[in-house]
Amino acid sequence: MRPLAGLVAGSLFGLGLALSGMLDPVRVLGFLDVAGPWDPSLAFVLGGAVAVSTIGWRYARRRGRPALAERFDLPTAVRIDARLLMGAALFGIGWGLVGLCPGPAIAGLVLGHPQTLLFTAAMIAGMALFRLVPAARARPSA
């Protein structure tokens, strides 16, 4: 049942990204470029995502446990350290340079755009490199 729930949730997420325009790097860059010809339309996507997430979190906090798991697997780290800041900066730089972040890139693979394929390959290579470099994993972030 869990794989089916994951497939449905992931498909719904990908469909939402496609319908909202988040799979189009040009549109995303237009939203991120507040100093140029700014396209504010994705602000509505952001607002809708925050609203749905807020409702979901409130509902989840009232439940004793998730429907398909023994317990909620929530983040426990509260410290803001150099590793967190560096990761956030790399994420932001990558998003700002190409207009893609991991979710839309994976969902956009079905479109076959060369830029999306290249971005996803680079993202996977970066994750593999992180696993290969022991110093990157040696210091826990929390």
Number of helices: 7
Percent helix among the residues?
55-70%
Overall pLDDT = 87
Number of β-strand runs: 0
Please tell me how large the radius of gyration is: 17 Å
Main sheet properties: none
The tally of domains stands at 1
Strand-residue proportion: under 5%
* Main structural class: mainly alpha
Secondary-structure element series: HHHHHHH
What would you note in describing this structure?
The chain is built from seven helices and no strands. The chain has 142 residues and is mainly alpha-helical. The longest helix is centred in the middle third of the chain and has 21 residues, at 42-62.
Compose a concise summary of this entry.
It comes from Acidomonas methanolica NBRC 104435. This protein has 142 residues and is an all-alpha fold. The chain contains 7 helices and no strands.
Give the helix/strand layout.
Blueprint: H1 2-20, H2 25-32, H3 42-62, H4 82-98, H5 102-108, H6 114-132, H7 134-138
Helix pairs in contact: 1-5, 2-4, 5-6
Looking at this protein, list some descriptive labels.
7 helices, mainly alpha, 142 residues
